[in-house]
């Protein structure tokens, strides 16, 4: 664990120059030694980290602890506030499936969920007594890290397949529980992605195995009572740039095996009622073509970007021969209306789409073609669909929230259109939505593009430029940032912050074209969009230059590194969580788990000189300059297979060695977790409290005034 001792000065990483020439360019890396040669072993067992590297990482943690020590009281207050907004004995609304209602809940004080069911009410009688099928708190007891992956009951309701990761490395072990006895069967399937799909007769399940390079490449069928070595291989992906995944149709008739990267997909289906069923290919992979599949009767309904449908369309195809030559448009492509997902319920097609940056749900009667929609009249909000387990149903569950309004779960009657509120998110410490203002405004990028910015502030805040601002961004992989309710940022907003989300290019917030304009050769647009958002917030009086704390994680952490290099004077501080900052070295290394799959997103710098030069131009680690930097807090996870621990460690070392002023620069590595940090719902509050205490300190004048800030908050 991290040392708590006071340290007088920051760690100085040894400089051990390494150089190589790529495409005629000499790349120098003074800190490559921080990458352990046995990194694959470290993912499985963090205790195998070489002693010298461990000492350096622990010294960084001790330095971070020293600098943040004046904020310990503030951090405790933040944790108390954030915990006070969590309903400790919360539970999700039960979902019906045959004779039972299935749901998860938490016990008061519990870190992990209880997976539960109870008999379904029948003919006016009350539902029966609850059965706790799995107690994740009990499973996690005594472990430094525990993350419950998936928990899926069998079609005959006798068994529960469940998975867990006990290192943070995303290597999940699958077990099977007998729900009559409460005991686990001898079956134990190691090194999986964590998901499983049951066969229709409950005698077997299908899962995805990870290879030695941590890539999900093999889909296998496990028959209960047999050893893992006897599992039947259904599919193996041999292209290292494509990963295998599994799902099932809402009808539960077909297993779907997909192989995909960030721009190409291929799907095969297996009849789950056929105990010897083999995969049947729907459409062969074609570079740039994506599709996903649903089933209804004797048809497949396919969401795809085929034939130039940039923002996707839905086609229908006969189940007997669903090859692309038989695809017929059902929901045509409409530019600017991005269809995000689709599901089929008996007689109906439901799609979730986004237009003008706002989501809506559209229900289509498959017989008549009539459509109705669910949307809300607010400037910014989030909307999602929970399809549940059943296919033959007239009820659709959806979840709505805005940045100021807690999540509301509704059951929507597909016949009458009536909405029934089944749950409203509780904030035990109290929350008045009317005390806050939600806005969506637009920044003008350097090329004229209009960048949406969602923001939240207290209604009584004076907008004269004096308010600090936390500006969040991501902008990669087509991920859109939902403007939904988050309880944690309220601790900043209630202290006078403006909380803002920049919907920059690289996400799909304004359609698929918005994503394309922020990837590969267009990646720099993500960075300049974020800077434009910050400049606009200052120009409009929501905050001012030098009062903005930027935050982003993973690929959003790369964004943080890039804007720190490009516009350090704009920011009071930067929070870079598990940041992807050593971009060029990582994308040049085919041996790393995710690298080949990443080339469609960033470009292939090994074989493409132009891609190499583009990445070299912005890779945060390679572009650290002799300039003044704002205070920076970087975080990492020792067992992280996505952004390896050495990326933030190398970046921080180079920043300290190169910068001419500013800072401080801090690194905190979770020695017992991976990419997502602490898995427990309360344990994770400690990491947020550290980040928010950093933000408050940075925006409040820096570390010379940290003690005053802490005292002022008590």
Automatic annotation (TrEMBL):
Family matches, as Pfam families: Peptidase_S9, Peptidase_S9_N
The entry's keywords: Hydrolase, Protease, Serine protease
Domain Peptidase S9A N-terminal: 10-424
Residue ranges of coiled coil: none
Tree of life domain: Bacteria
Gene3D superfamilies given in the database record: alpha/beta hydrolase, Prolyl oligopeptidase, N-terminal domain
Annotated Peptidase S9 prolyl oligopeptidase catalytic domain residues: 484-699
Family from the record: Belongs to the peptidase S9A family.
Protein name (database record): S9 family peptidase
Organism, scientific name: Bosea vestrisii
């Amino acid at each position: 664990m991290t040392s708590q001792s006071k340290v007088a000065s920051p760690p100085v990483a040894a400089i051990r120059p390494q150089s190589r020439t790529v495409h005629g360019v000499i790349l120098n890396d003074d800190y490559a030694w921080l990458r352990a040669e046995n990194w694959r072993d470290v993912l499985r067992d963090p205790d195998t980290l070489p002693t010298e590297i461990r000492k350096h990482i622990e010294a960084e943690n001790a330095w971070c602890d020293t600098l943040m020590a004046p904020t310990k009281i503030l951090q405790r207050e933040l944790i108390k506030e954030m915990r006070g907004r969590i309903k400790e004995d919360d539970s999700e609304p039960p979902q019906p499936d045959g004779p039972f209602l299935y749901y998860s809940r938490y016990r008061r004080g519990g870190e992990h969920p209880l997976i539960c069911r109870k008999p379904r009410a029948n003919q006016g009688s009350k539902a029966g007594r609850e059965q706790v099928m799995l107690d994740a708190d009990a499973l996690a007891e005594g472990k430094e890290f525990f993350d419950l992956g998936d928990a899926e009951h069998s079609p005959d309701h006798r068994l529960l397949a469940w998975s867990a990761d006990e290192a943070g490395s995303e290597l999940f072990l699958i077990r099977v529980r007998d729900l009559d006895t409460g005991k686990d069967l001898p079956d134990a399937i190691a090194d999986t992605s964590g998901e499983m799909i049951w066969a229709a007769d409950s005698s077997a399940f299908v899962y995805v195995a990870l290879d030695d390079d941590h890539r999900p490449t093999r889909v296998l069928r496990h028959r209960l009572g047999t050893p893992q070595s006897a599992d039947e291989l259904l599919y193996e992906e041999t292209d290292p740039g494509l990963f295998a995944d599994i799902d099932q149709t809402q009808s539960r008739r077909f297993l779907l095996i997909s192989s995909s990267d960030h721009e190409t997909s291929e799907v095969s289906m297996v009849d789950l009622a056929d105990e010897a069923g083999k995969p049947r290919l729907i459409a062969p992979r074609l570079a740039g073509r994506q599709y996903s599949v649903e089933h209804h009767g004797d048809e497949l309904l396919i969401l795809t970007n085929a034939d130039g449908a940039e923002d996707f369309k839905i086609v229908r195809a006969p189940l007997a021969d669903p090859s692309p030559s038989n695809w017929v448009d059902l929901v045509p492509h409409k530019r600017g209306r991005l269809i995000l997902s689709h599901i089929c319920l008996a007689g109906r097609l439901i799609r979730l789409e986004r237009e003008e940056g706002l989501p809506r749900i559209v229900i289509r009667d498959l017989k008549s073609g009539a459509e109705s929609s669910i949307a809300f009249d607010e400037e910014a909000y989030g909307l999602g669909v929970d399809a549940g387990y059943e296919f033959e149903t007239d009820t659709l569950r959806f979840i709505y929230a805005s940045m100021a309004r807690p999540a509301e779960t509704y059951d929507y009657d597909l016949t009458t259109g009536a909405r029934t509120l089944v749950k409203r998110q509780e904030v035990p410490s109290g929350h008045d939505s009317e005390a806050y203002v939600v806005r969506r405004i637009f920044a003008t990028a350097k090329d004229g593009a209009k960048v949406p910015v969602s923001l939240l502030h207290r209604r009584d805040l004076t907008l004269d430029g004096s308010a600090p601002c936390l500006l969040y961004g991501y902008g990669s992989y087509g991920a859109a940032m939902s403007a939904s309710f988050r309880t944690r940022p309220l601790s900043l907003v209630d202290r006078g912050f403006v909380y803002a989300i920049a919907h920059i290019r690289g996400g799909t917030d304004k359609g698929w074209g918005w994503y394309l304009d922020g990837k590969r050769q267009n990646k720099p647009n993500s960075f300049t969009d974020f800077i434009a958002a910050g400049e606009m917030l200052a120009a409009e009086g929501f905050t001012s230059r030098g009062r903005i704390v930027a935050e982003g994680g993973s690929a959003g952490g790369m964004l943080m590194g890039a804007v720190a290099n490009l516009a350090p004077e704009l920011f009071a501080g930067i929070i870079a969580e598990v940041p992807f900052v050593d971009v060029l070295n990582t994308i040049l290394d085919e041996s790393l788990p995710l690298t080949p799959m990443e080339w469609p997103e960033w470009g292939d710098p090994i074989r493409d000189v132009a891609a190499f030069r583009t990445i070299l131009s912005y890779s945060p680690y390679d572009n650290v300059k002799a300039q003044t930097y704002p205070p920076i807090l970087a975080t990492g996870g020792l067992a992280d297979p996505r952004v390896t621990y050495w990326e933030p460690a190398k970046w921080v070392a180079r920043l300290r060695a190169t910068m001419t002023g500013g800072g401080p620069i801090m690194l905190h590595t979770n020695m017992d977790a991976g990419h997502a940090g602490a898995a427990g719902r309360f344990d994770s509050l400690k990491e947020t409290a550290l980040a928010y205490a950093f933000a408050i300190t940075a925006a409040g004048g820096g570390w010379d005034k940290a003690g005053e800030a802490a005292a002022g908050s008590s």
